[in-house]
What we know:
This protein is mostly helical. It has one domain (about 5-120). About 70% of the residues lie in helices and about 0% in strands. It has six helices and no strands. It has helices at about 5-25, 25-30, 40-60, 70-90, 100-110, 110-120. The longest helix has 24 residues, at about 70-90. The chain is globular and about 40 Å long. The protein starts with a helix and ends with a helix. Keywords: Membrane, Transmembrane, Transmembrane helix. It comes from Chryseobacterium mucoviscidosis. This is DoxX family protein.
Amino acid sequence: MEAKNISRIALGAFLITAGIGHLTFARKEFQAQVPEWVPLDKDDTVVYSGVAEIALGTAMIATPKKYRKNMGRIVAGFFAAVFPGNIAQYKNRRDSFGLNTDNQRLGRLFMQAPLIAWALKSTDD
């Protein structure tokens, strides 16, 4: 199996695991990242985004080759769409996922670009 496929499947597994976390073991942690301006209940937002991550992860793994580039763009868009949650965590000094200092929360902001790149590069056939 080529490295690009391994990378794509790994990203899919990462998304599925994160989605399961939204629904179960990390639910409270994810609620801490929902910005105050989101018009939905925090728990509903976490559940919906968790379901979306499970669906996106499954699609990253199972999408036929001819549609993978579009799938990568969709996943990259999702990562961009949830970035305000990371900003809210930093701005509001919310501890979660072991990020309990301003420097750690700031560092997390810089991880979104590599996730977007991962989605795009692993599906660029």
